[in-house]
Write a structure and sequence with these properties.
Number of strands of chain A: 12
Helix content of chain C: over 70%
Strand order of the largest sheet of chain A: 8-9-10-3-11-12
Structural class of chain A: alpha/beta
Oligomer: heterotrimer
Number of domains of chain C: 1
Largest sheet of chain C: none
Number of strands of chain C: 0
Shape of chain A: globular
Radius of gyration of chain C: 21 Å
Protein name (chain B): Amino acid ABC transporter membrane protein 1 (PAAT family)
CATH architecture of chain A: 3-Layer(aba) Sandwich
CATH class of chain A: Alpha Beta
CATH superfamily of chain C: MetI-like
Keywords (chain B): Amino-acid transport, Cell membrane, Membrane, Transmembrane, Transmembrane helix, Transport
GO molecular function, one term (chain B): transmembrane transporter activity
Domain ABC transmembrane type-1 (chain B): 15-199
Low-confidence stretches of chain C: 225-249
Mean pLDDT of chain A: 90
CATH topology of chain C: MetI-like fold
Number of helices of chain A: 10
CATH topology of chain A: Rossmann fold
CATH superfamily of chain A: P-loop containing nucleotide triphosphate hydrolases
CATH class of chain C: Mainly Alpha
Organism (chain B): Ureibacillus chungkukjangi
Chain lengths: 272, 220, 249
Amino acid sequence: MSETLVKDKKSSILLNSEPIVKYRDVTKSFGDVHVLKGINLDIHPGEKIAVIGPSGSGKTTIIRMLMTLEEPSSGDIIVNGTNLWKMDKKGLSIRANEKHLRDVRGDIGMVFQHFNLFPHMTILENCMSAPIHVKKENKEEVRERSIKMLDRVGLGDKLEFYPSQLSGGQKQRVAMARALVMRPKIMLFDEVTSALDPELVGEVLEVIRDIAKNDDMAMVLVTHEMDFALDVADKVLFLDQGVIAEQGAARDVLEHTENERVQAFLKRFRRG
Amino acid sequence: MNAIIEILPQLLRGLQITVSVLLASAIIAYIVAFIAGLARASKNTILNKIAGVYIEIFRGTSLIVQLFWLYYAIPMLFGIQLGSNWWTGVIAIGLNYGAYLAEVVRGSILAVDKGQTEASIALNMSSYQRMRLIILPQAVRMMLPEVGNYTIQMMKATSLVSLIGMRDILYYGDIMRSTNLAQAPLVYVVVLLMYFILALPFIWLTRKGETLSKKGVASQ
Amino acid sequence: MSSNFRWETFVEAFPLVLQGLGLTVGLTFACFGFALLFGFVWIFLRRIPNKPIVWICTWVMEFIRSTPPLVQLFFLYYAWPVVPVVGVTLEPFTCAVLGIGIHYSTYIGEIYRSGIEGVDKGQWEASTALNFSNADKWKKIILPQAIPPTIPMLGNYFIIMFKEVPLASVIGVGGILFMANSYGASHFAYLEPLTIVGIIFLALSYPSSILIRKLEVKMNTRFDKNAVLSKSKMKTIQGMNLEGSDRIV
């Protein structure tokens, strides 16, 4: 009980700060399919948000647009006060070029459903490549930090292993270390446990829980793990047919909701 | 056996031309294939089209025609003498197989799993860094068996330069055949064996490449 | 020799070069047909349950495939007639069909093999369970499933052989390249007739390769996607897998 109180207190403080990310009337269509129909969402520094909802509801698309993997059809995504997908050119607002995207997305990191580790690099090299080449950081410093990070996710003894030598759960933990070494202010998790064998889910959730408790970055988790969402998230979004159908404190949405769609969805999940 | 001892040194005189044409045309083919293949895989429509025209022209006509055509066309159209037929052979073989290998390069680049690009975007890599650090190292591994195969094809193709007067293995074989027809079967068998021995390392490389190409690669 | 490309020469040479087209196309069909048949010989030989025979056969195929067809043509044309006992003089056309046909049969044989290996193992077991004779097993069950998926790849080899056939001009078979060269020799103008040859090849092989690509897509939807021999699968075919060769079904 006291822990929940602390968390609620923490999130109320967070809400007073300026949002680090703002979605304004964001839509996305693939051809005739309207995946997202007007998303408005604020992400505050340090806030942990879980996104739930039936498959095909557009959950993943929300975070993929923030990671610049998908371009919105309309609307704005503002990161640190800068429009992500649009830039100014001689007073005109035009489509962002790669340089602009790179400048703005630097604070964002992402972990994928299928890990997407680089198979030709050892797991240490996986962690080191981006800080060295993208951020031009000192190699020795990056190395030290990477080892520390891999240690933290429990893989400190496998630095020279290649991804193909690891289990799915281990791969996903490397993927998280790789993202963390870049010191993002926002971390996106795209159904990170759904490609894993059931017995490996726990070890990955444990690492995320650890990050959520001890790091002050904002986190957006697209997930099917309801109990986990309840435990980790400050806020839960329920996405249905391309709109945010319900949102609020985790406990309110997951345990006391009046929304019938949410109830039906949760019932189906809890049973399984 | 005595006959072979007599034949072999004669044929070996042509080895230098065969090997040098192979090496030079292979280098040209690899470089051209790399550039054209990257252009084909890029989103730049102009580069893509230019590379496409080059590939279709060289794959759509046969090497022996290209060889003869260049043999007459280079001095005539450009008013330059390449100095030797060696260059004509090397350019013809290099450009022809460069076109085939360009498709291999393109195919391998496109075969790298899309998740690899997404992960490197998530790490904020530039498109150049993505290609150099993530996509190409994996694509090159995938190419290896086909590169081995096409290098064997190039080795076979070097025999065509004897038709434009280069003194390669086949050229000396033909000379020996015309001076002593009774020896012809043995001469050509030895010629074939020499080509086969040249092919062996590439046959081995192709096999090795096949196992290697499956490692360290995320393919779609 | 003319010092520049001249359109008059081009126009004049065109009908003459074109006269060779019938022979070039005919030779392509003959070589391809022979390679199709001879490809079965390799398959047959490599299914003999005798390891040394299979081993020898595999290396002979590798030898033929890895050495220049030009030398093989010369061997058949110049050397074969003087080989003791078996040697006979061959007509240039026959020589070209044998030389190019056998060379490419080693590739075609590999295509057949992957087609046969692509047939589900259960099909063999089922046809045994139904007590088919060995011949019927092949004729009625295995080959009807093994061959159709290979058709696009065989089509590709038809185009490859079409472009290889001008090689026969070196032993005097009068296709388009031969015609162009003889026009060149008599008029001291090579560039124009050779350009014509290039254009003819391009005009015929480019549309055919598009056709093959379409066929490949069609086959992909009709058959199990994995059974169709895509280009990527050809990797293993061209770099023939010796280790797998002693597999006898």
